[in-house]
Design goal:
CATH superfamily of the largest domain: 2,3-Dihydroxybiphenyl 1,2-Dioxygenase, domain 1
Number of strands: 8
Number of helices: 5
Shape: elongated
Distance between the termini: 54 Å
CATH architecture of the largest domain: Roll
Radius of gyration: 19 Å
Structural class: alpha/beta
CATH class of the largest domain: Alpha Beta
Strand content: 25-35%
Length: 159
């Protein structure tokens, strides 16, 4: 075996390069990689983008312009661990723009890719050994779209 790690392949309908550049504009540590183009052999128009490599938050991706046969759904999502409310607000605003807000910190971006914008402390709050604290926090989370850390902490504390 020669490979290490994984590369996530995302199937687009002609938007792979646009999507890669969009994600690179959001995640500050992103890098654009190689861009492969269709040749006369097809199946896409010669010279158009077949695939684009990019990396965000240390995760490697390949965006493929495969056509309309497949679309994204919530069965796969990317979770962004956020240290504070400013990060939650930033990623939520950038990724939800042109997309669709969902429940419990989930959203679909304008390409249909699902993201979870989650405070890093959430798992500790909902996983607390005190079942009442965990239940209050979970109940509060289930009523939210974008997660509100202060409100989650208040629910946890019973306020």
């Amino acid at each position: 075996m020669t490979g290490k790690g994984f590369t996530t392949c995302l199937w687009f309908d002609g938007q792979a390069e646009e999507a890669a550049n969009h994600y690179l504009s959001i995640f500050e540590d992103g890098k654009l990689g190689r861009i492969g183009r269709y040749t006369e052999a097809g199946p896409g128009p010669a010279g158009s983008v077949l695939a684009v490599e990019f990396e965000i938050n240390g995760q490697r991706f390949v965006g493929i312009n495969g056509g309309p046969q497949f679309t994204f759904d919530e069965a796969i999502s990317f979770q962004i661990p956020c240290a504070d409310q400013d990060e939650v607000d930033y990623y939520w605003a950038k990724l939800a723009e042109g997309g669709q807000a969902g429940p419990c910190g989930w959203l679909k971006d304008k390409y249909g890719v699902s993201w979870q914008v989650v405070p890093t402390e959430l798992i500790d709050l909902i996983g607390d050994p005190d079942p009442e604290k965990a239940a209050r926090t979970t109940a509060a989370m289930l009523k939210m779209g974008k997660l509100d850390i202060a409100a989650l902490r208040r629910a946890y504390a019973g306020e």
